[in-house]
Amino acid sequence: MDAQDAITAVQLVFSVAVLGYASVLDWRTRRGGNRVWVLLSAAAMALLVVRVLVDDAPIEYLLVLVPVVAILADVYGSSDEAGAWTKLLPLASYAVAIIVTVYLAYLWADDRYFAHLLTVPVMMMAVVVMYMLDIVRGGADAKALMALSIMFPFYPGIGPIPLISAGDPYAEVLFPFAFVVLVTAAVIVAFSPVAFAIRNLAAGEFEMPYALLGYRMDAEAAKTRQVWLMERMDDGTHRRYTRPRRDEDLPTEVDRLVSAGQRRVWVTPKIPFIIPMAVAFVFTAVVGNFLVVLMGL
After folding, report:
1. Cα dihedral angle (271, 273, 279, 285), rounded to 10 degrees?
2. How many angstroms separate the CA atoms of 54 and 97, rounded?
3. pLDDT tens per residue across span 215-230
4. What does the DSSP assignment read for 15-66?
5. Radius of gyration for the chain, computed over Cα atoms and rounded to the nearest angstrom
6. The pTM of the whole model exceeds 0.85
7. For 272, how many CA atoms within 13 A lie in the half-sphere containing its CB?
């Protein structure tokens, strides 16, 4: 095993261990904890430095860590305290990240090796945007994707693995490893409406579109479950909705529904996305970038 394979093996083993541990936490509490992702991100940055040195790449390529650190400074350094500085810090962080990334792209984006490194801050900023748009819902999910972006600017490959390799050398730059993990996890979760539909049909409580997004349960029981409501009392009017609120006060909302005579309520479970992400990670590491097959690259 050469040095590159050794680094890849460490990346894979460390990532699987952290994702496995986080999956257990996600299943039990739906919370991963910042320490898990800080550890994975720190290890990823250290291994990225080692990889650049082992590959004998230009040392200045490590400037790619400047936007990475700037983004992480906002993600893990944000404060709930009010003040001009706390409001300006995120803007300053992303301004630095964007400006440095664009400048580095101008300098070295035509080098395929550095193009892989450049996917790290680009993917991290894309995750931030997806989180703000509610495409990636959980904070832990976003932090896990960012950590994986840092860990794998290059697709992990040892011997015959992954089974699928891209014919176009820039395909892996166009579809970074962390992005393919996200898409694969989303495909896994996309089968959940089928499971919900079967459950609701068996219970005789099928009602579109809620039957594809969740299920009904006793209102009082909902208070102690890892779920979001799909209905609430709004100024005395009973309303249903398909996009739950992140900041929902579940016990209070349930009490209002019960007071209005609602004994069973529609809920959607807080799907522990780290678990399908961990499965998607293993699948992508072993099988490879299935998107290149779909797009014929």
Report:
1. 160
2. 26
3. 888 888 887 777 888 8
4. HHHHHHHHHHHHHHHS---HHHHHHHHHHHHHHHHHHHHHTT--GGGGGGHH
5. 22
6. no
7. 19
